[in-house]
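Hi all, long-time lurker, first post. I run a small reading group and we've been trying to get comfortable going from sequence to structure in the token notation. Rather than ask abstract questions, I figured I'd post a concrete chain and ask someone more experienced to write out its structure so we can walk through it together at our next meeting. Sequence below, copied exactly:
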Amino acid sequence: MTPFASPQQLNGGETGELIIGGVYNYSRNPQYTGFVAATAGLAVARGSPRAALLAIELAVIMRAWVAVEERHLRRQFGTAYGRLCSRVPRWIGVRS
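-- Answer (accepted) --
Happy to help. Here is the structure in token form:
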């Protein structure tokens, strides 16, 4: 979280720099990927169909939300974001 200089950056109220290093070398959306993976892991660990359904629902919601964020990032960072998209998958190991 160190590259995010302020709470305003985290909630979209202030634009900082495009972060392209660290975990962002592997996924453009590591926070959402981790959230869905943790929920799916909980479903498996608990043997819970309800948690599995929640993981699926989260994946669908995150996919829709990421599309909204990507439109904003393309407007904000232009070709730099386009280069990131061509180099790094949206989800870990899944090209989009």
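A couple of things your group might point at:
Helices lie at 7-10, 30-46, 49-77, 79-87.
Residues 29-96 form one domain.
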